[in-house]
Structure formats: C-alpha cells, structure tokens
Amino acid sequence: MRSKLFIFIVLLSHTFVFSQAPGHLGKRFVLGYAFHTSPSVFNANAKNETIIGRGGNSESGNVAFNAIHELSMEYAISSKWMVCFSGRYYKTICDNAESITVDNGYNLQSSRPNGYYNIRGLTYTLYFKYYGKRYVAPWGRYVMFGPAINTSKTSYDSNVMNIKGANRNSFNYNYRDTLLSDFGPKDQNFVGFNLMLGMGRSRIIANRVVLDYGVTIHVFSVMSGLFDAGDIRFGGSKISMNNYIESTVKQRVRGVNRFNAFLKIGILLF
Amino acid sequence: MIKYLLLFVLFAETCFAQQNLKENYNPLKSSGTLPDVFTQNIRNVIKDDITELNKQKDNNKSIKRTYLTETNYEIEKIVKSGNALVNDEITNYLNKVVDVVLKNNQTLRNELHVYTLKSPVVNAYSYDKGYVFINIGLIAQAETEAQLAYILSHEISHYTKKHHINGYVENKKIERNGYDGKSKTDVLIEKCQYSKEKESEADIEGFKLFEQTNYNLKQAEKSFDVLQYAHLPFELVEFKKTFFETENYTIPNGYFLKEVSSIRNNSNEDDTKHTHPNTAKRKVTIAELIGNRDNSTRVNFIVSKEEFEYIRDLARMELCRLYLKRRDYPNALYAAYILANKYPQNQYLTEVISKCLYAISLYGKGTIKYNSDSYLEDGIPSHSDIESYPQQLYYFINKMPNNEWTIMSLNYVFRAHQKFPANKKLESYSDSLFKLIGQTNWGIPDFVRVKKKPVVAKDTVVVDSLKSKDDIKSKTDLIANIQKETIVRATDTIYYKEIYTDLFMNVPEFIGKFPTPNSDNASSNTGFSTYSSRSSSITKKSKNEESIKAQAKIEKVLLLEPFYLKVDDQRPEEFQYTESDERQEKFIETVNDCAKRINFETVTLDPGLVSSTEVEKINDYSVINDWFAEKFDANDDAKNPILNTNEIDRVIEKYGTQYVLKIGIVNYRAKSGIKRTYYYSYIYDIKNNEVVYKRYVIYRDKDTKDLINAKVYQTFYELKHSK
Predict the structure, then answer these.
(1) E strand segments, chain A
(2) Is the CB of A133 less than 8 angstroms away from the CB of B541?
(3) Nearest to B90 by CA among B25, B39, B153
(4) Which residue in A43, B17, B330, B604 has the fewest CB atoms around it within 10 Å?
(5) Do residues B305 and B320 lie in contact, with contact meaning Cβ atoms separated by under 8 Å?
(6) How far is the C-alpha of B721 from the C-alpha of B252, rounded, in Å?
C-alpha cells in the first residue's frame, strides 16, 4: 500500500513540474455533483416496476429508471490527465424473484418470496480522466477509468417480504398455513469490487461552472450481464431463506451500476 | 505662440522636406493625424449607412445592405493593411492634383479621400464612399502629371456615377437570375459587358472633368499607353553587363543576347472576358472627344514638373522594395538598375541590387524556393517570357552558372560594403556571400591574388560568337553552338580568376574573410547558419493538429492583430463580417485576459485599435506586415531571407521583443450543418526568421468560449513554461 501511495505521489509531483496548461485558465480543482441514471431492466424499483419484470408483482413491464447521486472531486494534474475521487449513493429495492428451497417439509405456495427488500448502496471510485488530443483538462472530450468499491446495505420488513406456505399437522394430518419471514438479520452489509470505464465531454460555462456529461459502465457488471439475465449461477450453495439476500443483492447492485448516463454540474474552485 | 510656431515648423518639415535621392532613400511612411477611417467603429458606420439606405426608396435594398457591409469592411481592410499611406509625400502630391481637377467643385472635393497604396500593380480604384486608392506601381509608370490627373478624373467619375455599388447590384442580379441555359462563361461575359460599359462611361465622364483643367488633353489618350505597357518596367533601358564589371573582371558576351525581342502590341486584343475595354477602343473614344479642341495652351504639369518627377522617383524607389517583398528579384534588380543610372551614389539602390544578387545566388543554390503560394510560382521566369530590354537580364540570370553568379555578386556586394562601410546590411550580405563561396568546390586557390599581367580576352572572343538558343535555326547550327558552349564551359573558369585581385592586394578585410579550402566556411555543408532549416522539429500529430514547442524562453510577445472569422455556408452571404468583427473584439479581450492571468507580457499591435495620434503604430504594423508578406510568399517553414525591410530591427528594439504572436480563430459551418473551428497560434522570431512556436488545431465543434479560453490559455502557459 505504501509503495502504491509513493508511486501516486511521484506521478502527481512529476506532472506538477512538467505539465502543460493544467486546468481551465489555471483552475484545476472541480467539485461536482452528478446524477446518473439507467433503465431498470431486472428486478425492481420501489413501485415494483421494471422494463422486463421477472417475478412477484413486477411483471407490469412499465418503464423504470435507476437513480444514482454522486459527489466528486477532480483535479487536473496535467493538460491531459485528471485524478478524481467520487462517492455514488443510491437507494433502491430488490424485487424478489429468485426461488428458494425450504428443507423442513413446508409446502410452499410459491418458491419466490413475496415483496422486496431495500438496498442503500455506496460506490467509491478512484478514477482517472484522460482528455483527448486537442483538449485541455478539465475541458473537452475524455475517457475515464478506475477501480470501484461497491458497498451495499440491505434491510427488509418481514411484513412485506415473506413466503406463504403450509405444513401438515402430524396429529391430524391437516395442512396449516404458515408465514415464513426469517431471511436472516434485518440489516446486512455487502462489499464488491468493480472496474469503472466511461467517456464524456465537459464544457465550461462562465469560466467557473463545469457541465459534464457522458456514460459509465462497470466492467464486471457488464460481463456478468448475460448470466444475470439468464439467472445462471456458478457454484455456491442452494438459495435458502438464510442466504437469499446475500445471493440476490449482488445481482441488483450490478444492475444499478452496469451502465449509466450522467450529467454533472461542477464548480471550478481553484 | 511659440508652440504654434514650432508646430508649424514641424508641419512644414513633414510636408515640404524632400529626401535627397542622390544619396539615399527612406521607405515611405504615414505621418500626422490619422483620418477617421482608421479610428471609427466600423459597425457603427455600417449601421448608419444602412439606416440612410432604409430611408430611400429602392428596389435593391437587400443587395445594397450586403454591399454596404462588405464594402465598408473591404475599405477598412485596405486602409488598415499597413499598405495605405497617409500624409506622406506622394499622397500629399496626389491630393494637390485632385485639388486642381476639382478646383470648381469644392463639395465633391470634400467628399473624396485619396490614398496611395503600397502595391506594385499598375492600378487605381475607387469606392462609393469617396475613397480613391492609387497604387505605387501606377505612379511609377506615369509619364506626366496630366496623365495622373486623367486617371484620378476617371476614378472620381466612378464615384460620382456610383459605379461600384451599381456594378455590385448588377452582378448579384445576374447571379440570382441563375444559369438557366447559360454557361459560366456566358455569365462572366454578361458581367464583363456591364463592367465595360461603366468603364467607358467613366472614361468619358472623367474626360469631361479633366478638360475643365488646363492639362494637356492628349495626355488622357497617352495614359492608356501607360496601362497598355504596364507589364514592362517603368523605363526601357538597355541592360549593360558593364554595370557589374570591374577593372579585372569582364563578363563573357555569351551570357547575353545579341538581340532582345520586340514588344508585342495587343492593344486591340479580344476584351469579351475583360472588365475593361481594350486600350485601342478607349484611345479611340478619347481621341474622338479631343477632336479638334484647342490643346495649344494646355500643359502637362500644373502643380510642378519637378515635384512630379521627384514623387515618381519616390514611387520607383519604393517599387524596388515592393518587388523584393514579393520576391520578384529580377524586376527589383532591373528597377534598381534603371534608377542607379540616375542616382549612382544612392545607398538604398546599391543595397537593393546587393540584395537581389545575393537572393539570386541563393535561388541558384536551391536555398530560396518558390511554390504555389508564391507570386513567382515557378521561380524566376525564362527570358522567352519577357519582352524587350529586361529580357537581357533574365537571360543573364538563367544563363550564368550559379557559382559564377555568386562570384560576381560578392564582387559587387563587397565593393558596395567598402563604399558604405556603415551599412550593416551590406556587410552581412557580403559575409553571407563569402560563406556561399566557401561551400563550393571550384578551386578557391585559383583566384589570382597578385596581379601579373592584364587579362587576355582570348576566351571572350570564343564566347562572342556563341549564338543564343533563339538564333539557332538548324541542326548544324545547334551542333556548332553546343561545341562552342563546351568551349565556354572549359574556359569560363578563367575569365573571373582576377576578379578579386585588387581586393586581395589592397584590402586586408577581404583577405581575412575570403574562405580557404580548410576554413570553417569552406568546409561547412550546412549552408548559412542563419538560414538553416528547422523543419524537423515540427510535430504533425494528425491532419487536424500540428505543433512546434517553443525551444527558447519567451517572456514577451508582440500580439499582432488577433484574427477572427465566421464563415457560414447556410446563410446567403458566407462571410459573417459583422459577427466576425464583434467576436474579434471579444477574442482580443480573451487573449489579453489569458496573458494577464498567467503574467505573460504582451504588447498589442492592431491597426483596428489605434487612436488618431498613433500613426507610428500604423507604420510599425506596416513594417511587420511587409515582413510577413515576404515570409508567406514562400513555404511557411522555409527560412528564406526577408529582404524588403531593414526596419524590423527598429521595431524589435521599440517593442522590446523579437517574438510576434499571430493568433486566430476561423469558425465554419457547412451547408450540411457540420461545424468546424480552426485555432492557430504561431510565434515568429522576426530577428532570426523562424517559427518558434506553432499550434494549429481543428475541432469538430462550435467556437465556444471554453474552447477559446482553453486554447489561448494553453498557448500562453506553454510559452511561459518553455525552457
């Protein structure tokens, strides 16, 4: 870690000394807010609406969008390069669509849990913007890339998320309705790693306001897109009530971060 | 009172002090207070003109509005180009002649603004706003004051008859009527026909004005001869080789034609596709107007014959410089040769001749090059394309081998340097010629350094009988000529052996500078250190981007007229003059703002930003503009010497920098809607004659403010941080 930090500092100091015209009219630091959005293809939003519904009540096929808010800090280290850090926040739900297996002899009405669970996600990205030839950071066309850490926190309400089932009474052999709602701890935390790629275009208004727009993808999410769509899983244990959230949350997080268009407003501070 | 007296003395000195052309000539300069056309806001002028037009009943208002916009910008461009002279001796004289012509019409006189234009082209023209421009080339060719008076009368008639605006409207109408069933040639002929009618009208109306004076009416007719033979030098003087010969140096006759060609008479040529009637027709018209009018008491000169001749000589002197500016060395040499016969002690003429000899030496070596951008696209023309006496000079230039030309040039230039030892330019050309001689392999020790006996002209006899290629009629003649040519080649190493003998014997400076086989000069293969090419440092990143990084520390630049142009093919008029003008103002602000932000020192030299008292800025701008005109005549990256102006050193000293920044933006929108923005910034080292910084980029985008800010700032940042 120390060696990576050292390389980073050397790179930064080198570009300070030999860089050409970094920043716009000498201003290099941009503090920005961005709104990212993408169609919610699988699973759900809070209204259980998706373009392609697949389970529970989400078969409506209505248009729905993911929404991500981002705060970023960007610094021009040369005429071509910017080093940036951002935090993305999103709040969504996962509409339950996966079948689970219950081993204790219950006769389930449906293998899919009813309802949904909530997800609050935070994505931290350290990324670099590289401006195309003829452009000068932070103005112009660029590509960006960098590692991203996806963190997510889930919570569920057992009144909303549950499975109706029945088990046979051993005394009179009658079936008795029951409600299964224990999907593990109410709040669960998860962490994932991804690689962000993007491209965009930034304009500068009145020498102070940066208007930035473009698209981003999370590479591993894109790569796993087909598997997610086909509900193909590799390895791992069967989905049970205890690991249901763990097994499904990553798919939803990938869905949110897979591909987004964004519009960013930034301020050139110094 | 004393103040007014001093002012009068200063004014009188400016107006009446004549140059002593026997000794020297100082290039023409503007002086005094600049007229309104230099200082007025062009957009306001156009606005006023259009308001005035809107008050009138006119069916062609739309076309005329465009005309007013275009013409006002055109006039501004001419006036502020640095080529228009204000309050100089020639312009003052022309105004005196106009005073004579319009003695009885003071109202019209007050509407006219007459300027001299520093152009070698034999031409004059006028605009509807009363601006009359007379080129130096025309004044140099005029034979009498009366001829100038008639030409001015002709131009004044164009103004009074509003030919310029009517011609514009007519041409637009012809274009708008379309090409239905007509070829482009038909449309051209239609336009030319209209133009010819107006020219004939101006000839007649001009004559009416002219006959009100006491000028010789025959001179009106003669003025068409001046135009007819405008392609010939202002005087036809036999070019004699003795001009370059010295006591021990005789140039072989084989380098000269026995006879020169006659002058072709094409006065009655087909003028169908010409804007002016042919001169024969025009002469007939004037001759008919003169008819039997009494011409006996009329004179060729009213203002003054002496002043006319002096003014004409000034124009002729200036003409030499203008020829140098477009690298037309043979014409410059011939013009200077003619004048040198009249003013043999004139230092300026000696310098012009030296420059020409030196430049032709470089041309022969391939150092000076011409290309499609050049006035002389294909280089120095063949003598067969030239008429009359000048043909001799062209033949001489093309016939004499380059090494011999260089030897002859050094002989002339070094002696000129001896004659005018204080002239640093002559010394530098002489030094450069020494270097050129050092680079040759013709056997430097062969020059006779001590005189033994007089040169025997044995070789010359052989050469005398050499026929020019034009004289060769048959195969046997050709064979004989080739054989004789071989003899010339075999012996011509001899005729110049004693050329420097007296210099070797008597001038230590010559001995010291003359290259020996082992000296640096002799062994150098790189050519002139001052004129070596640095094109290898150019980085061509793509077809859309090209740059040179500044190699030297640049702390201050002279900002030369930042440029902005908007071109829009989607609009009826593709050039958006007014919008370009507005954008240019903002662009200048941006450039200065960016320089200020980065603490980079700039001095702006823009003829559009001068006040009426800043005539010196116009003169400085003119000097730099002349420098660039000659620079751009050649390949941009070539380091051809700039010879037309010696004043560049003064400008460098005055502004404290040798770096000139040319910066600009061209924004273009195609009919298809495609947008392009072209940004360029070049820095020229006008002392060392090289491009030291270059950035040229094309964007597929609009000319947004952030684009402009980013690029201009980047330019200054790179300059500020250049090593």
Answers:
(1) 29-39, 65-76, 81-95, 107-108, 116-131, 140-155, 163-168, 175-180, 187-205, 209-218, 259-268
(2) yes
(3) B25
(4) B17
(5) no
(6) 58
DSSP helix/strand/coil, B623: helix
Q: Nearest 5°: CA angle at B574, between B569 and B579?
A: 115
Phi, psi (degrees; rounded to nearest 5) at B509: -60, -40
For chain B, report the end-to-end CA distance as a whole number of angstroms: 57
Separation of alpha carbons B108 and B110, rounded Å? 5
- Write the pLDDT tens digit of every residue in B548-574: 776 668 889 999 989 999 999 988 878
**What are the backbone dihedrals phi and psi of residue B344, each rounded to the nearest 5 degrees, phi first?**
-65, -20
Flag whether the ipTM exceeds 0.85: no
A27 vs chain B: nearest CA distance in angstroms?
11
Q: Distance between CA atoms of B692 and B447, rounded to whole angstroms?
A: 41
Closest partner residue to A139 among B545, B598, B710, by Cβ?
A: B710
Alpha-carbon distance A36 to A218, whole Å? 13
What count of other Cβ atoms lies within 10 Å of the Cβ of residue A132? 12
**pLDDT tens-place string over residues A46-79:** 454 544 444 334 445 566 778 899 999 999 998 8
Among B543, B717, B722, the strongest candidate for a mutation testing the A interface, having the largest count of A CBs within 10 A, is B717
Q: To the nearest whole angstrom, how far is the Cα of A19 from the nearest Cα of chain B? A: 9
Closest CA to B78 of B619, B609, B607, B648: B607
Beta bridge partners of A217: A197, A259
Q: How far apart are CA B556 and CA B722, in angstroms?
A: 12
Structure tokens at B411: 């002989």
DSSP state of B108: H
CA pair distance B597, B592, nearest whole angstrom: 9
Say how far apart CA A41 and CA B206 lie, in whole Å: 85
- SS3 sequence, B380-425? CCCHHHCCCCHHHHHHHHHHCCHHHHHHHHHHHHHHHHHHCCCCHH
Q: What is the CA radius of gyration of chain A?
A: 23
* Distance between CA atoms of residues B571 and B62, nearest Å: 14
**Cα distance between residue B608 and residue B618, in whole Å:** 10
Order of strands across the sheet that contains A175-180? A107-108, A163-168, A175-180
Residue A247 CA, distance from chain mean position: 16
Say how many C-beta atoms besides its own lie within 10 A of residue B549's C-beta: 15
User: Left, alpha or beta for B443 (phi > 0: left; psi -120 to 50: alpha)?
Assistant: left
DSSP labels, B78-101 = HHTTS-EE-SSHHHHHHHHHHHHH
Is B421 buried (19+), middle (13-18) or exposed (0-12) by CB count in 10 A? exposed
> For residues A134 and B546, is the Cβ–Cβ distance under 8 A?
no
- Alpha helices by DSSP H, listed for B229-328, are 279-290, 305-325
Q: How far apart are CA B191 and CA B183, in angstroms?
A: 13
> Which one, of B697, B448, B483, lies nearest residue A134 by Cα?
B697
Substitution target in A17, A20, A25, A207 with the highest count of B β-carbons within 10 Å is A25
B positions 506-565 inside 8 Å of A (CB): 541-542, 544-545
In whole angstroms, give the CA distance from residue B121 to residue B140.
10
B405: phi > 0 → left, psi -120 to 50 → alpha, else beta; which? alpha
**Per-residue pLDDT tens for B472-530?**
444 445 444 544 444 444 444 478 888 999 999 999 999 999 987 655 544 443 333 33
Confidence (pLDDT) at A23 = 81
Give the closest of B598, B704, B705 to A26, CB-based: B598
pTM: 0.81
Tokens at residue A18, please?
Answer: 């030999």
The three-state secondary structure class of A252 is: helix
